[in-house]
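Risk register update: the risk of archive-format incompatibility is retired. Evidence:
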Amino acid sequence: MKMFLDHGKPCLFVGPTGTGKSIYISDYLLNQVDQTKFKPVVINYSAQTTAKQTQDIIMGKLDKRRKGVFGPPFGQKMVIYVDDLNMPMLETYGAQPPIELLRQWLDHWTWYDLKDCTSIKLVDTIFIGSMGPAGGGRNKISPRFLRHLNLVSINEFDDSTMSTIYNSIMSWHLSIKEFPPEFNTLGQSVVNATLQVYKGAIKNLLPTPEKSHYLFNLRDFSRVIQGCCLSNTLSIEDTDAFRRLWVHEVFRVFYDRLVADSDRDWLYTFTKEVTQRFLQRDFDVLFSSLAEDGQPIVEDNLRSLLFCDFSNPKAEFPKPYLEVKNIEKLRILVESQLEEFNNMSKKPMDLVMFRFAIEHVSRISRIMKQPRSHALLVGVGGSGRQSLTRLAAYMADYVLFQVEIGKGYTSFEWREDLKRILRKSAESEAHSCFLFTDTQIKEENFLEDVNNLLNAGEVPNIFPQDEKQEIQDAMRKIDKTRDKSKQTDGTPLGLFNMFIDRVRDQLHIVLAMSPIGGAFRTRLRKFPSLVNCCTIDWFQAWPEDAWRSWHKGSWRMSSCQKNTGQEWLNYVKISMKVPGRYLIGS
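Archived output:
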């Protein structure tokens, strides 16, 4: 990359999702190049990106040298980095307008003003792109464009490379948290076991039109290891507790997104085999505390396998990630938190906190606890996605943001709301949660902005120059209070990058979507960050114990009415087989 930039040659990096293309390039452009010589601009493409948006973003970063000539400040070169280059949709005749605009630039170094059609000459600009292989919403790039680019392939890591990377991370965690020596060997076994589950999921859990979110990449591998790194010597009593934590993290990353019983059965059986083979522990012995009356462990028993950071309300921050030994005590604790929320909130929630709801609250809380993590909650309306997210955010002491969609709500109001959310998230020290549902998508460009936030932590050109100056002033004040080793160089670019980093660190996005209809699959294809950058929690049909708990908690009636209610409950369980639409709230 250094050679390409020094000689002003355009290049394109191609490789599968999760191989680090964006990280390599962004880190080099923002942290390693001479900022006095190169001025980077990062653009993230999606299926909805237009040629006009591309031209507006780039022209907004260039200065007018003289009539008809635009470029970066004298003495500098503008490096335009386009991520997910092949994502824009094909138009009627098979072309991709944003890419055709870039081709025109590399062909002739000329664009045309969108108002008066006068010629615009672009000087001292260099192009860098990255993309994944065609397929799954990504399109083939025109050879007329590719001929200008020097192609660099980034292959998937082999097994030994992945083991080396994650063994280093795990060894560092175990040493810095001062785990006993016997955990060192177990840490290596955990990495090897995760590798087997990851490869098995790619091979056996294949995407189909109904399972378009069955897409696994190295980010999923990282999420399992990252979950294990939430442990410390206070939360993990012995090596068996660490083994149970690993199984829990595998289920949260891989199991929670599965929609078919056969897929869940396969993953349960495969995880059981991997545990016995790599972690050298009998599965039934490891989870004997979850078994009923000495019976062998079955898949349903693992619903009781929970780790969370809210089981001990008196714990100091950062709260330990503890294994839940008593579900009933946890239910009482969550109900007390719900009561506190209702006493303080203008919109109290009337929820029955049965076991199924507690499971999903703990999953959402786990996602929020992890750094730079986001959630995609999939379920029909009324399954509790929004209510449980509000409760999880309250228990984590996070500020909850949610846009109010009215009749006259347009892209302008949406952008204003986003700016308010981004600024409040970055300029305060508290973490925050942005809850956004598919019923609030009045225009598809709303998801375009969310896709950019998930992928890069910013929405291009959302802040005008005066607001950007205010942001830089606010970041400068915060920067002065930080340790000198972490302070920026004080330049406008460095301060704005600090703002973006704080948004990525402190804002957790939770998307609530319904799988009904074709819109969900279409959006996953158009906006790949919805899958790649989110941990998926699929709200399944209520199990029988959930119906019974709701029945006990909601029906306050005579014995005759209870019999009628039980008959109704039996009918619902047989006929609906879906979450109760009006039972938890939305």
